[in-house]
Amino acid sequence: MGTDPTTQTLAQLGDNTPEQVAPRFAEIRARFDFEISSDSNTGNWPAFIARWTGRKSGVLTEIGDNWLKPAPPRLKKVVGQEFQKLKAHVESALEAKRKEIESAAEQAAAARDRIDLSLPGIERAIGTRHIIRQTYEELVRIFVSIGFSVVEGPEIETPYYNFEALNIPEHHPARDNMDTFYIEGAREPHLLRTHTSPMQIRTMEKQPPPVRIIVPGKVYRRDNPDATHGYMFHQIEGLAVDTDITFCDFKGTVEYFVREFFGPKAKTRLRPSYFPFTEPSAEVDATCHVCGGSGCRICKFSGWIELSGAGMVNPAVYGFVKNGYDAAKHSGFAFGMGIDRLAMMKYGVTELPLLFQNDVRFLRQFP
Ligand code: PHE
Q: What is the reported pTM?
């Protein structure tokens, strides 16, 4: 430490009287107080700590070695006392200073990270429900409001539920209309359901009459994809069976649905049709939502759009189901509508593929 007054003082202690010891320690203490109050010293904190408390050559160690250890007996006691006082003072002052430095650093960091509440927030894009989903939810809302409940069923079906139990035996021409994906390698024959009608059978097998259900879901057909056809689309099946259900109940239900879905001006028309599992069968048309019935490209200038296949449940179907369904006592109606087609009509979309490409520029238009 060379010419440092601290060390000069240290060397001379042995010649002092006991009364002169305390002032010597006071000098060291003043020196310490002076140094610790100056940022230029404490700015290099590790070096400052080492200078005062370092084991090898810190000032406290030097005092121990040069003043305490060699002190003659007459000075031993007072040097020991003064040394302990100095040590305690240095240690507590260093601890206080260390805390001060740390909290200053913390405050500086907090100031750096402070959140400015006046800044505008980060806007995150919020997704929208797909229009098929929106349409599905609307359909469910309407039918639930008149007493139907929602059930869902498997997309992989057996020929029995998809065809046989619906009164479509093998080689029946109705199978040709529904080009079917068969699943290869299955132990039992399986297929991708071509319509939601299998759930008519599955539901009645589980639940004795009365029954009032809708079944939304995906169906698959080997169609050649074009503007209005894909190999997968969505249907919603309806089935109501009870005593005394008539065709009028069906007509009233479908008219109510069409007005709720398309608005009070929409009209409904029924045309005779054929399905093996309904008798009589009908095709339901609604006035074209795009042109209001005057004729446009969407409705192929007819003013009408085909909505649904439907009819009164064929007594032959009850024969497959049993479970308390008795054609002499029970009657009911069933219908199957394309959800995608309803969505296209309601939202004025002319290309079916747009519904499945998930291009956000398209999807964003239907918040
Ligand atoms: N399942 C028929 C189809 O997909 C529609 C339908 C359902 C017809 C219920 C009558 C009764 O074409």
A: 0.67
